[in-house]
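Example record

One chain of 294 residues, shown exactly as stored in the release files.
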Amino acid sequence: MGLYLFKTAVIGFCIFIKLNKYTTVLSTTAVSYLPTQILNHFRQSSDLRPFVETTMAIKHLSKDSTEPPKVPGSLRFYSMRFCPYAQRVQLVLNAKGLPHDTVFINLSEKPEWYLKIFPAGKVPALIYDGKFLSESLLLADFLDEQYPEPPLQNGSPLQKILDKLFIESFGKVGTAFYKVIMTTKEIEKNNFDELVDSLIPIETELAERGFKFFGGNKPNMVDYMIWPWFERLDAINPYSRGTYVIPFEDKFPRLTEWKSLMIADNTVAPYYITPEKHAEHFTKKKAGLPAYDI
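Predicted structure tokens for this chain:
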């Protein structure tokens, strides 16, 4: 299980979806690594999106590595498996069913070849038409415009602006989360309470929209852009060994239902990492230990 739960099942292999017949074809090896709950969802789903990926590097490449050759006809995607910003772009690639080959970058020991083409050394990044593109929200919007089907931004021009403002305001949740996890040796209650309070306007926003998803009857750009942090919020429980647990069911019933739906979403499920594995990543990262290929 863990990191290679989906990396082996989805990233190391291909998932081919025949939309006209709604048939999913997974390799035998891939099936063996999928959790029963997610596998059953794929078997029963009648609304599967195309998702094809070829991954050149299974492990995160570091200082002395060489760049893998690019795959013709695929977008080169530079990522880090535990990066929420990279996950944003991954979800758009999944939702669009875009062929892409992923190179995972060790951000602690960045490859020299990567720094040559991108001195900032950040992820996510894409190469499109020979151009090097970066920044998660910019990449998400670019992919949605360049590959319009299925559209991930719906509604009027006004609603699109409101969605973008909401995504920007959501940054407060991300800031509060990393303050809880990364800034102190042990989780401090005042930081945890601040994080819980930051979720109140998110619950309110979902209630005011009147749908199960922020995007309406199905996930859209808003859902995918904020999901990576919700995936990590549940890591607080194993990270703190049960001392701190966000009271989703008691305080945030709409977000509780939304989280369950998102985990089962065909775009999210193949790239989902368990709370325990996220907690392991944070623990090792804080301890200065290798925290990528786990």
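Notes: The chain is about 50% helix and 10% strand.
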